[in-house]
Design a protein that fits this description.
globular; alpha/beta; single chain; TIM Barrel; two-stranded antiparallel ribbon
């Protein structure tokens, strides 16, 4: 495999590859230069990992890649146990977590991403209740928390990004990411199922194509200089 790292210019969105479950795939993914990877701690997800799996993956990655744990309505102690045992740099909150939890996690010097939705609670307009590092924006279509591989009108998120650092997610792929970035102008993009060969198993060729496409996207937006990871 070509191990050349694809460097994203500062005026392109950062990249998070979510739902990794295997050390070998995480290492190959890291060689392509994403800014962050996501480890899912949600039992109903086909990408759910144990603490042992997460620790092995996290410790296999270079220090310049942030490891983000994904949680749904879990208490502070539950989250922090996994942060500490799995060497996580940050957390992504996909449920109805309250602002106090976000504050407590920020105080632990963690990257804290709060998920907000266009068509369900917590809505985008509730961002002022939180003081998160960044916000992951989705449409909230599907049965599980997350993008559920469903595309949506990404332009609906553009106005939100003028005042908030945000990560675009939901229905992204190597084929449509350039259009999605052009329509929404995000600070970062997050992909999982769009670069898989089956749930929980990543396709390295698709990841490479996705990161390459992002690296060619240029956004002339002074707010895009805000780095989330």
């Amino acid at each position: 495999m070509d191990k050349t790292i694809i460097k994203n210019p500062s005026n392109t969105p950062q990249v998070k590859i979510c739902g990794l479950t295997r050390v070998d795939e995480a290492i190959k993914c890291a060689e392509l230069g994403p800014d962050a990877i996501g480890l899912v701690f949600f039992e109903k997800s086909p990408r759910n990992v144990t603490m042992e799996q997460a620790k092995k993956i996290s410790l296999s990655l270079p220090k310049n890649i942030s490891t983000i744990g994904v949680f749904v309505d879990k208490p502070f102690g539950h989250i922090m146990e996994r942060v500490e045992k799995c060497a996580l740099n940050g957390v992504q909150l996909h449920g109805m977590e309250n602002p106090d939890l976000v504050r407590k996690l920020i105080e632990q010097d963690l990257i804290v991403i709060k998920c907000l939705y266009l068509d369900s609670r917590p809505f985008l307009k509730e961002a002022s209740r939180y003081n998160a590092t960044g916000y992951l924006v989705e449409c909230a279509k599907g049965v599980l928390p997350g993008g559920n591989a469903l595309s949506w009108n990404w332009s609906r998120a553009e106005e939100f990004g003028k005042n908030h650092p945000f990560i675009l997610a939901g229905g992204l792929s190597p084929e449509n990411i350039s259009s999605a970035i052009d329509k929404s102008r995000p600070h970062a993009v997050d992909i999982s199922s769009g670069v898989e060969k089956e749930p929980g198993r990543k396709d390295i060729t698709k990841i490479k194509a996705f990161i390459k496409a992002v690296s060619k996207s240029s956004i002339e937006d002074k707010n895009n200089s805000r780095r989330i990871f």
